[in-house]
């Protein structure tokens, strides 16, 4: 049995038979550390905690950042009074996150307020965490979940973001977001990228200032049910290259482009498929529902096999074999354009960080020509994500990345220690 420190911790015991102060037939339950009664700050309580312990925080404002790492699987941080949640308060002038959890499993955050952080809650390589009844306000990005799996966010509110998404899930399969509201994010309200099996249940996004309400990108088997997406700057819901998508009973009204836009997502082949699943869209500035079906090609066309009691017949799609003739295909013509970027870079510092390219708003934008047929995908002023650019195909992302890399390398005073580009977060076409 682990020894309990004599200062600042109390341990509840599972009921058993107790004789003469000896516990028989049961084990000690998790330690409960009270803040500020036992420890003055949330971080000091986390530092004193072990796996499975509970940090219980009294009402008040806590101007700190919280880091949860090490042997603390199953740790819980929760409000002592859920009706008056404690406030983790950061400073908008810094790049400090509110709560950072890395490399753990089963952590729970419950009934907390997090304001003015760079990222309100950041989960990195975290499995099976539960984020419940959180309120995030005026953070740069509300909640980011990356390289984990099986995490759940429920009953939460993201109120405005200063620069990025309300909720961003990347490379984290089987993430569940339910009964959650995102209001007035700077970019997407909820963005799901490369995260198979995501579930968005009864999620509402309204008032995205510069992008889609909900984006589902390359996330096979994802499910969106009973969602509401209204008054967003671009599409209400946009799903791209996500096979076996489930989309039912979603309402998309008053958005700046399409209400529901589905691109290359089986089993949706036309607008009728969307309507048949109980989805509705009205009053959007573009078309209410847009469907770009998944196209069959030589690598995707299935073969159909029919079996009978006496024989098996195989029917193969009638696609002509590849020609043996070599044909030179001319390169698409290029069009001039000027750009600004937001890029994640690695430097000599321990962690990557985000930078503007060019470095200052007064600097001239970067002139980078791209394929003329892809230029309409970049409406002037829109911030188009790196994932969206990659989905266009061709060499556009490579052209933009190469130009950014050259600019970074040629401005060492603005980007000290620059080593490499981790990600082009977005590109903004500013002209012509």
What does this structure look like?
With 432 residues, this protein is mainly beta. The chain contains 4 helices and 42 strands. The strands form 7 sheets. The chain has an 11-stranded mixed beta sheet, with helices on one face. Strand 37 and strand 38 (353-357) form a beta hairpin. It is globular and about 65 Å long. 36% of the residues are buried.
Q: What is the global morphology?
A: globular
Please state the structural category: mainly beta
Largest sheet: 11 strands, mixed
Strand content range: 35-45%
Number of helices: 4
Give the strand line-up of the largest sheet.
1-4-5-8-11-14-17-20-23-26-29
- Number of extended strands: 42
Average pLDDT for all residues: 85
Low-confidence stretches: 1-27, 297-329
End-to-end Cα distance, whole Å, is 69 Å
Q: Work out the radius of gyration.
A: 25 Å
Summarize the amount of helix as a percent range.
under 10%
Secondary-structure topology with pairs:
Elements: E1 10-13, E2 17-19, E3 22-24, E4 28-35, H1 42-48, E5 54-57, E6 61-62, E7 66-68, E8 76-79, E9 87-89, E10 99-102, E11 108-110, E12 113-115, E13 119-124, E14 130-132, E15 135-139, E16 141-146, E17 152-154, E18 157-161, E19 167-170, E20 176-178, E21 181-183, E22 190-193, E23 199-201, E24 204-206, E25 214-217, E26 223-225, E27 228-230, E28 237-240, E29 246-248, E30 251-253, E31 260-263, H2 271-276, E32 280-282, E33 289-292, E34 304-307, E35 312-315, E36 334-335, E37 338-346, E38 353-357, E39 366-367, E40 370-371, E41 383-385, H3 386-391, H4 396-409, E42 420-431
Parallel strand pairs: 4-5, 5-8, 6-9, 7-10, 8-11, 9-12, 10-13, 11-14, 12-15, 13-16, 14-17, 15-18, 16-19, 17-20, 18-21, 19-22, 20-23, 21-24, 22-25, 23-26, 24-27, 25-28, 26-29, 27-30, 28-31, 30-32, 31-33
Antiparallel strand pairs: 1-4, 2-3, 34-35, 36-40, 37-38, 37-39, 37-42, 41-42
């Amino acid at each position: 049995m682990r020894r309990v420190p004599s200062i600042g911790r109390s341990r509840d015991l599972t009921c058993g038979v107790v004789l003469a102060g000896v516990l028989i037939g049961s084990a000690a339950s998790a330690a409960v550390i009270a803040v500020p009664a036992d420890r003055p700050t949330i971080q000091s309580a986390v530092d004193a905690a072990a796996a499975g312990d509970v940090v219980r925080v009294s009402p008040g404002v806590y101007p700190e950042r919280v880091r949860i790492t090490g042997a603390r699987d199953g740790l819980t941080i929760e409000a002592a009074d859920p009706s008056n949640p404690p406030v983790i308060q950061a400073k908008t002038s810094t790049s400090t996150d509110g709560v950072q959890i890395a490399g753990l499993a089963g952590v729970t955050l419950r009934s907390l307020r997090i304001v003015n952080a760079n990222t309100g809650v950041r989960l990195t390589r975290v499995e099976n965490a539960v984020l419940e009844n959180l309120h995030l306000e005026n953070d740069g990005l509300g909640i980011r979940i990356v390289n984990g799996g099986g995490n759940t966010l429920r009953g939460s509110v993201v109120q405005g973001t200063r620069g990025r998404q309300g909720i961003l899930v990347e490379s984290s399969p089987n993430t569940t977001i339910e009964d959650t509201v995102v209001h007035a994010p700077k970019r997407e309200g909820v963005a799901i990228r490369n995260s198979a099996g995501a579930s968005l249940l009864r999620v509402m996004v309204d008032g995205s200032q510069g992008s889609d309400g909900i984006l589902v990108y390359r996330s096979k088997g994802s499910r969106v049910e009973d969602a509401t997406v209204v008054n967003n700057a671009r599409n209400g819901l946009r799903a791209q290259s996500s096979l076996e998508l489930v989309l039912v009973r979603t309402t998309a009204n008053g958005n700046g482009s399409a209400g529901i836009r589905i691109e290359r997502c089986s089993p949706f082949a036309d607008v009728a498929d969307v309507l048949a699943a109980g989805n509705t869209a009205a009053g959007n500035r573009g078309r209410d529902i847009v469907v770009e079906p998944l196209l069959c090609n030589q690598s995707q066309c299935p073969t159909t096999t029919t079996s009978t009691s006496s024989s098996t017949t195989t029917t193969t799609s009638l696609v002509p074999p590849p020609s043996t003739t070599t044909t030179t295909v001319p390169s698409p013509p290029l069009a001039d354009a000027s750009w600004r970027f937001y890029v994640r870079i690695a430097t000599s510092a321990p962690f990557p960080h985000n930078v503007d390219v060019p470095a200052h708003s007064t600097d001239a934008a970067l002139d980078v020509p791209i394929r003329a047929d892809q230029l309409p995908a970049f409406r002037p002023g829109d911030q188009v994500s790196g994932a969206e650019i990659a989905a266009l195909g061709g060499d556009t992302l490579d052209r933009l990345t190469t130009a950014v890399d050259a600019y970074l390398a040629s401005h060492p005073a603005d980007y000290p220690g620059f080593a490499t580009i981790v990600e082009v977060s977005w590109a903004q076409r500013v002209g012509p």
